[in-house]
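> forwarded from #structure-qc
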């Protein structure tokens, strides 16, 4: 798999992830995303995926690649959790 194919795969996966709540909103009232929710999640995913791709292209050591990508994924998860339920109680947490 070439790096460009991998990046295309990442971008398609991001689009599919963003389609999940859109489809769920058609079938249940428990998922209620606004336009800003989609924009914020899109920004979060569009920084996480390509940043991991950048690390995969630039870092040669497998150990550092794995560590940096896991760190990025962990930080993205923490940001997502804070925005979703406010686990830290910061001002930008969801209501």
């Amino acid at each position: 798999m070439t790096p460009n194919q991998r990046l295309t795969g990442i971008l398609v996966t991001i689009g599919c992830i963003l389609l999940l709540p859109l489809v769920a909103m058609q079938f249940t009232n428990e998922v209620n995303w606004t336009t800003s929710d989609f924009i914020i999640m899109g920004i979060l995913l569009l920084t996480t995926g390509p940043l991991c791709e950048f690390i995969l292209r630039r870092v040669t050591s497998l150990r550092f690649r794995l560590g940096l990508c896991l760190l990025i994924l962990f930080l993205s998860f923490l940001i997502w959790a804070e925005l979703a339920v406010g686990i830290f109680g910061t001002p930008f947490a969801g209501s």
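QC bot note: The chain has a mean pLDDT of 91. Helices lie at 3-27, 35-58, 62-85.
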